[in-house]
Amino acid sequence: MSAKPLLQARGLIKTFGALVATNNLNLEVHPGEIHALIGPNGAGKSTLVAQLAGELPPNSGRILFDGADVTAADIPARVAAGLVRSFQITSIFPQFSALTNVAMAVQARAGHSFRFWKAAGTDPRLVDPAMALLDQVGLGSLAGTPAGEMAYGEQRQLEIAMALATRPRLLLLDEPLAGMGREDALAIIELLRSLRGSYTILLIEHDMDAVFSLADTITVLVYGKAIATGRPDEIRANPEVQQAYLGQEAHPREVQHA
Ligand code: ADP
Ligand code: MG
Predict the structure, then answer these.
(1) Which of 34, 68, 88, 158 has its CA 20 to 30 A from that of 239?
(2) Among candidates 184, 81, 80, 200, which has minimal Cα distance to 137?
(3) How far is CA 119 from CA 89, 125, 180, in A?
């Protein structure tokens, strides 16, 4: 990819006592790509996302977002810049309808220009974009359903709609398929596929079928180090990756494109 990276981590180090969870890590996420981060349990994927999201300070190294140094920026500043982890800003209110929940997330983005939050479910300036987002994630027919009455997978779809309502420039998703049955997982995978090209996403996921069919770029993390970055076919063919990670579970050559 030729465009300037949207996100860069440079020489990032994070230790927990004697444990080096992020070990001099470099990462570049380019605009418009789905960039998957894979690696064994304990490789440091969530720790990296926490540093990118502003939840954990690195010991050293730098995080650049759209060229600006955000290493010391707090969570609200990163969210305002568009560096957003799903579920970070808004959580579902189970008693409110799906539509009102998304309308409230639209309102959170709009900030002080909408003071009367109770009107979120009726104000067309909030409801219209919220409805469009529900349609986009495939929940249009459930707009009036209280979120708490929706199925588990539907609630996860709703959370993605709420994250999109904040207009992220980079969406961080840490295991969005966790705890789901196959059918719900497939719905989320299709949703992510529909976002491909329109959003920039850093995706942590254990489901290798999902990763290899969705990602434009894959970075492999082992013991806090990025051992390889490349297109799915490059990662699949990389002997070091096979040795370090993929060989333990599904053999990479067995991973099929959807
Ligand atoms: P992954 O998400 O790849 O499974 P994590 O980032 O959760 O890995 O964890 C990386 C390593 O850091 C693991 O060894 C984990 O036990 C350790 N770790 C993560 N968070 C903490 C913490 N808050 N305190 C101490 N150790 C931690
Ligand atoms: Mg994790």
Answers:
(1) 34
(2) 184
(3) 19, 10, 33
| Calpha distance 184→37 (Å, rounded) | 21
Kindly give the number of the ligand 1 atom that is closest to the alpha carbon of 174. Answer: 2
Calpha distance 64→6 (Å, rounded): 8
The CA-to-CA distance between both ends of the chain, in Å, stands at: 23
Ligand 1 contacts (CB < 6 A) are 16, 19, 21, 39, 41-47
- Tell how strand 217-222 and strand 34-38 pair up: parallel
Q: Give the pLDDT confidence score for residue 144 in this predicted structure.
A: 97
Strand partners, 201: 34, 171
Which conformational region is residue 224 in: left (phi greater than 0), alpha (psi within -120 to 50 degrees), or beta? left
Q: Looking up tokens 């992020």, which residue turns up? A: 22
What domains can you pick out in the chain, each with its CATH number? 1-82+169-258 (3.40.50.300), 93-167 (no CATH)
Q: Taking the model in full, what pTM does it have?
A: 0.89
Centre of ligand 2 from the C-alpha of residue 172, in Å: 12
Check whether 34 has a pLDDT greater than 70: yes
